[in-house]
Amino acid sequence: MKYFNTNGCCDPERHYMIDLSERLHEVKQMIDDGQYFSITRARQYGKTTLIHGLVDFLRNDYEVLSLDFQTLSFEDFKNEHSFTAAFSRELLEASGHIPESVKGDLEKFSAGTAPAFTLSLLFKTLIQWCELSDRKIVLIIDEVDSATNNQVFLDFLSQLRAYYLKRGRAAAFQSVILAGVYDVKNIRRKIRPDEEHRTNSPWNIAADFLVDMSFSVSEIAGMLQEYEDDHHTGMDILLLSRLLYASTSGYPYLVSRLCKLIDERISGTKEFPDKADAWTRAGYLEAEKRLLTERNTLFESLVNKLTDYPQLRTVLYELLFTGKAIPYNPLNQYIDTAEMFGFVKNSNGNAVVANRIFESVLYNLFLSQEYMQSREYDAGLQEKNQFIVNGHLNMRKVLGKFVEHFTSLYSDRKETFLEEDGRRYFMLYLKPIINGVGNCYVEPETRNRERMDLVIDYRGEQFVLELKIWRGNAYNTRGEKQLSGYLDYFHLQKGYMLSFNFNKTKQVGLKEITVGDKLLIEAVV
Asked: Are 473 and 439 in the same domain?
């Protein structure tokens, strides 16, 4: 039986995966047009799977040389002689249709027996291959990240560029594709002790790669339909597809990981005895909760990037907790870096966190680093048992106790302090109450300096809570109507509001408001 794969390249014969046909046709059109380009995406975004599918897709029309720089060692990049030898060995393994004269030169290079062999000699041999080949040649190199910080790789790119520019007069590769996380068009590494940082790249010939590699709702549905044909669970495919997309924005690894958790970890548990029980909305929510508490290679990679790039951490913190609008500008190195690693994306001209899962991971990370010094977290931890009655979360009581706690601690603080930190304090208070059982996330379209909607899932129940800064009665009334409309979306009759009010005549506490057929419980601090 097939299974959901989250480790390495996906194979349609063995794994449940989306249909790549449309993407492969788009990439082939670029190759047919003779374009050189990079496939630059974040970790575990399906680059290698796309390349493997592309190799098979092109074989009838092109001679495809598919290499992986992961197979080269540090010593192979030490100088152009060692690189030429290693590259020649990879080419000999990559193709069984090498002209004899070319094969003889490559064998000499690979064995180190050719006198004074260099990159320029290697490329003259490669161009000869392009001249003699019955079919046009496509060169694909995966995992180029391992090579982007040294002079040899820059010289290699320079050779590719030189022959690309004169290919109207001489033979050359039909197309060259480089794949990795880092965009090789923007190399900024110190490559020699006697040089400053180089910022110019010889890969400025590369065409833009605009193929969308995220999974759409319909593509996820197609994958689930294949699973359903095998297992007959009776799942609501459209519902599950929409849930998966809503939390992941189609990030390939996250979609597959959630499906794998439902299939292999959730199904067969006490709460979800079989696959029919697991492939439900409740089963999905359980899988999302488990995903957010696991340690996997993608999350570890993201956290490591925050250590390597401290300013990136600052940008993300601002986005999450203050609601600060940060214009999307790819020329800003911090925005460019955040997007390259998959943290953010462009949404209507603003940089936003790329998906709800990453957002929750970052919230949990930032909040966890404050647990030891947080009085809010301690208070929530000490009081948590009184908020759960017969397995149900009493959100009204959570708000009431938070008002008491917050007022006693911060009533004398300045407004600017509370605006920046008030919502974070509530999340610190809530975390130990729902930890291990529930989950919460922020609806991104509502996040700004004045308003933020928090959706809390607890044992299959949902609570929508609007956190907002008080801006007068008219603004407050408008917020109540917005929340009422939002409750319609979630098919809920009761909603909650937490208002941070800095008016000295404010009335602290809880009150009930009726808006249409909705009951709103508002807490004011």
From this structure: yes
